[in-house]
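Problem: given the chain below (115 residues), write out its structure.
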Amino acid sequence: MIRARRTRNAALALAWPGIAWAHGQQALGLPVGSILALGIVTLLVLWRDLGWKTRLLALAAAVAGAVPVYTMRHPLPASLEVSGAAWFLLGLIPPLTTAGLYASWRRATRGRHER
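Solution.
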């Protein structure tokens, strides 16, 4: 029962940014940037000639790159906290970076055609 409650609370924290310290501009910019990044990563891994493991783990890396941003208390300097674009980029860049780094590392270590 306790484990189910923790899982539900973690899912709510990710789904509802207000629980994870998001207010004002970040309540819209951060999730929209993250969703757009996940959409871009999904399209890229489907388009590229990658194995299914690489595709799946690149998507997992994108999700893992987005999670820490939601749990940081003040990830941006105070001068940028009022900018919706800064929050959007903060939601967009970490998932794209982690997925790209994983996919390029995987491709370099395992070869191009892994199936």
